[in-house]
Amino acid sequence: MGVVTLPGLTRLSPSVTALVVRQDGVATTAQLALGGVGPSVVARRVRAGHWQRVFRGVVVLQSGPLAWRQLARAALLAAGPGAALSHRSAGVVHGFVATPGPRVVVSVPAHRAVRPQPGLDVRRRRVMPRSGGRLRSVCREATVLDLVQEAPDEDAAVGVVCDAVRAGALPSRVVAELDARPWQRHRALVVAVLGDPDARVESPLEHRYDRVERTHGLPRSRGQVRQVVDGRWVRADRVFEGRGVRVELDGQLAHPHGRTDRDVWRDNAVLVERAELTLRYRWRHVVSTPCETARQVATALRSRGWHGTVTACGPGCTAT
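-> structure tokens emitted (320 positions)
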């Protein structure tokens, strides 16, 4: 936020004015009282629409729409000492959650009781994770695990991890954070995704595809392979090195309208220059018909000289 104007507050001390500016134009009524602005003045300016009371005892010194950062700041002030943005709200601060949701989520030490208020989601924690920043937030690694803990399924959990890594979360630090969380949901999944030295998984769809290979006894492909094809750098999702077969996984977010012109060019260039076959799969193929997908991959590999045996993933598997 830029300059905060405080019309009519001639009695506000310079130190409190500077504090309000640092707090994105947000202040508690106690802070304003220190600057000579009592409860009656605050109430009058709120009634007049010059200020807005966001939470109990917290006001924003402006009219008009509020930025999410101001709401987050107000939530921290309302929650009091030791509070930090967490979960989805911290994910917004760290850059791997796109939308903040209807409520600001803050965590506080368990010994503190914060009264619930509309728009404020308070989590009491026996052990507070590391936190900091100008807009005090739980650290990136703990935020990843908080969101994984609440993920409704494995795909959502993998999506959280992948988004966080793309935003700068270090896999080794996230895995290290697990040591303090014996209760963590999807623990093995986090280790499997982040402990892969090949950094294979960049989306939930890739995680699901790796399961197709593993459960059907297919050769292990190499993930995220960068190559120069026709003078351009390209990256393949999966390559069966030495077998002339590669797999591209078109998730809805990455390819909302199917294959792009660039995808078609790359497939053609790979076939012409490297004599490699490209198989493309989407969610329906990998998630709804994994056995048929495994059978097709196996057929492609056999056409290029593979003599291995496909393993049935369970009763009724059609891959064999």
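Residues 171 and 194 are 5 Å apart (CA to CA).
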